[in-house]
User: Which sequence fits this backbone?
């Protein structure tokens, strides 16, 4: 894996949610996309009405795919939300096409940016989610975040750098300094739009590495 991956040399991906409906998955594949993360859940009450059709469509098109959960630490504890995610599309199995579930933890779109938690409380919340997910699947969840949010809301915690793959949102031409002691990003969301639906992402490696990630190696 590279510190600053080449956008043109790495497997390309997208992430989508209910905002992107009726996706033409064949066109997505023809555009060079290899993987997708799909929003499954948020908090403990929201299940994306598009998740099932998006997941099936991506699978049928031959994409490597996984689900993600939008964290709401102001609504319940991390373990409860991990179990909700697992029950509604967030699971993982070593079939070579399923990415480990991702925890989308970022600024609160509905209120206080750190959801009213102190950095130590936030680290504990993320740990509860991560450990619950790992106990159920054998995999630690991918963590999606931004450098600024992680620094502000976790105190730039290094507690997850060894176990949780990083999916960094950094809309720039080159990947900048990573937060939290991570030495590399596994996934890089480098733009919020592009020729395909949703946000533009890449896997920091080659296709063999992406398949190994899906297999659990």
Assistant:
């Amino acid at each position: 894996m590279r510190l600053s991956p080449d956008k043109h040399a790495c497997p390309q991906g997208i992430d989508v949610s209910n905002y992107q409906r009726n996706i033409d998955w064949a066109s997505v594949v023809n555009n060079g996309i290899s993987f997708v993360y799909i929003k499954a859940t948020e908090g403990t009450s929201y299940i994306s009405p598009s998740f099932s059709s998006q997941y099936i469509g991506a699978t049928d098109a031959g994409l490597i795919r996984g689900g993600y959960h939008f964290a709401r630490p102001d609504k319940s504890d991390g373990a409860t939300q991990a179990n909700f995610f697992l029950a509604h599309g967030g699971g993982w199995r070593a079939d070579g096409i399923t990415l480990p579930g991702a925890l989308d933890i970022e600024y609160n779109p509905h209120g206080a940016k750190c959801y009213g938690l102190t950095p130590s409380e936030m680290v504990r919340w993320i740990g509860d989610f991560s450990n619950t997910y790992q106990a159920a699947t054998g995999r630690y969840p991918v963590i999606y975040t931004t450098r600024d949010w992680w620094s502000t809301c976790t105190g730039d915690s290094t507690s997850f750098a060894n176990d949780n793959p990083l999916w960094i949102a950094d809309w720039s031409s080159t990947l900048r300094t990573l937060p939290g002691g991570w030495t590399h990003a596994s996934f890089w969301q480098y733009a919020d739009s592009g020729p395909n639906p949703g946000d533009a992402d890449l896997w920091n490696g080659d296709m063999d590495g992406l398949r190994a990630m899906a297999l659990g190696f």
Summary: The chain is about 30% helix and 20% strand. The helical segments are 25-30, 51-60, 78-87, 119-137, 147-154, 207-215. Residues 119-137 form the longest helix (19 residues).
